[in-house]
Design goal:
seven-stranded mixed sheet, 310 residues, six-stranded antiparallel sheet, single chain, Methionyl-tRNA Fmet Formyltransferase, Chain A, domain 2
């Protein structure tokens, strides 16, 4: 079976690795164009490109997926299957080329959490379970018929970053199993129930500001659902403070405090009032500084009880 694998970030690495380990023919790897990254703005490769080059695979990096030259190249490669993991939206001109069609790996139990940020939204919504889904591509994003799914429990204090890593490995197994279904002629797609669909839109920085007038449980889920990226934040005297980890604590006086008020400030504890209960900050970062434990942070940053975070 000839496969074209499309992906860009770390999440797509395990899927490509498992196909190579099982000796599948990767006709080409398609990934995002090279671009400047980091402080030095040096040109760097995507994680998927680095892996592909280490295995001497053909790498394609089209600027535009509808470009006639790229479409022609894909046709000439004669793939039996295109696999998409954390890549761009494929046009019909591309996903209809392979003999078996094209499938995508999505980090949710579709039709739940259709969109660009399913891992973040599942945690922010306080879900206890999520998963991965392989599904056939169609023109409307994330709506194609389901091939395989795997369910995963979300830990009580699990962050988006931790869940991301777990799902990428489980997703790789689903990629392999899905390919084998096509090989054996046992792929039986089932349509999604659109009435059960929920959105998981892209998250922007301005959406990451903490609303302290929510319950502590909801703020807790918000923080871990955005950790480590794009990261929840609040403001103190005009300075951005990014919050990476927190814990819900009971406070007898928090209902009488304005949400966002610092209830407790000691050398190793920072507790913030919410609409119900309170939140203890565990890991934090001042803008322009490094991420650190709350103990280390409080040694060099002055805060006083009664201050209200914005």
């Amino acid at each position: 079976m000839r496969i074209i694998y499309m992906g860009t970030p770390e999440f797509a690495i395990p899927g490509l690795k498992i196909l190579l380990e099982n000796h599948y023919t990767i006709a080409a790897v398609v990934t995002a164009p090279d671009k400047p990254r980091g402080r030095g703005q040096q040109i760097s490769f995507t994680p998927v490109k680095e892996l592909a080059l280490s295995h001497q695979l053909l790498v394609l990096q089209p600027q535009h997926l509808k470009d006639p030259g790229f479409v022609s190249t894909v046709v000439d490669l004669a793939p039996d299957l295109i696999i998409v993991v954390a890549f761009r939206i494929l046009p019909k001109e591309i996903f209809t080329i392979p003999r078996y069609g094209s499938f995508n790996l999505h980090a949710s139990l579709l039709p739940r959490y259709r969109g660009a940020a399913p891992i973040n939204w599942a945690i922010m919504d306080g879900q206890q379970e999520t998963g991965v889904t392989s599904f056939l591509l169609r023109e409307t994003v994330d709506t194609g018929s389901i091939l395989l799914q795997a369910r995963v429990r979300i830990g009580a204090d699990e962050t988006a970053g931790e869940l991301h890593d777990k799902l990428s490995l489980i997703g790789a197994e689903i990629v392999l199993q899905t390919v084998r279904l096509f090989e054996l002629g046992k792929a039986h797609p089932r349509p999604q129930d659109d009435t059960l669909a929920t959105p998981a839109p892209k998250i922007f920085r301005e959406n990451c500001k903490i609303e302290w007038n929510n319950s502590a449980e909801r703020v807790f889920d918000f923080v871990r659902g955005l950790s480590p990226l794009p990261c929840a934040w609040t403001v103190h005297e005009g300075r951005i403070l990014r919050i990476y980890r927190s814990a819900v604590v009971q406070s007898t006086d928090s209902p009488s405090k304005v949400p966002g008020t610092l209830i407790t400030v000691t050398k190793n504890q920072l507790v913030v009032a919410c609409a119900q209960s309170a939140l203890s900050i565990i890991e934090i970062q001042q803008e322009g500084k490094k991420r650190m434990s709350i103990e280390d942070f409080l040694r060099g940053y002055k805060l006083e009880a009664g201050t209200i975070l914005g």
